[in-house]
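Below is one record:
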Amino acid sequence: MTLYQVAILFLNGAGHASLYYWSRQFPNVDYQLLTAFFRRGILPQMLVAKAWQRFHPLTKGWLIIDEIILAKSKVGRCPAVKRRYKSAGGYVTPGLSVVVLLWTDGVWRVPLRFKLWRPGDGTAVDVALELFGWVRNELHWKPTCVLFDAGFAAARLLVRLNNYGWAFVCRAPKSRKLDGVQLWQYKRQGYWHAVGEAWCGIKLLVIRRKAKFYLTNRLSWSAEEALAWYSERHEIEETLKLFKGVCHWGSCQSSDDEAIERFLAVGMVVFMVWEAERVKAPSPTTIYQLRKKATLSPRMFIPPSLKRLPKVS
């Protein structure tokens, strides 16, 4: 099978369904050929890079990074599965950890690269350092701003971005220190902002809004400007939900980490197809609305954007 044929299945296949179910849903699809596609020597990162270069090459914009956990119960059978503590529910769950780097200019959302965690890769912060280094050293591109949540607000990441000369805005845990004092004790007021030497050794602008703390290395920015930048981080949260649902990231049942990585790469490429259709729609719409329309149509949904896919067989 070709990437074009597999992408059509991703666009029209039932949600939260396995490859075997798709082979039953579409009579002309051979299950063995379909699974063999993900066992071939396709380089996932090269596939994603070729796709975004065809759909929307990098222009002025900003970067957002985040981690998504895909539930996976096959602990021991797949080396990429790890146990992760979920602080929101207070329990441990096995799953796949995927760090995604997203570029956006406020209109287009283009996933540049992703990293499936494997033993020896370190933490999500280590993966983020690798991805940002790839942008700077391989793409030779400078973002307008970099956005991430408190989970990535480690000292080594903040120092690296500051050394790159990149602006960043992020959340921070209340236990981090400013001028040697923990943020939650720095001032008693619930709303304040101040410039000082942070725990990572660089000067930062810290903003407090009730129980939340925000950081930026652009000391000349106002608090409102920094918060406006951070509000753009919702783009990656919506994108990750689309990856998991519309692009079937949550449906991969393989225990082979290389096949899983190829599956995720195809899902990311299919997202670019949906995004191209959304941006070029004659009236404002969402990918969810496009997906619903395609599902209710009696014909197969084969958008013109599929012609941009790189040639992979």
Observations:
- DSSP finds eleven helices and eleven strands in the chain.
- The domain at 3-308 is CATH 3.90.350 (Transposase Inhibitor Protein From Tn5; Chain A, domain 1).
- The mean pLDDT is 92.
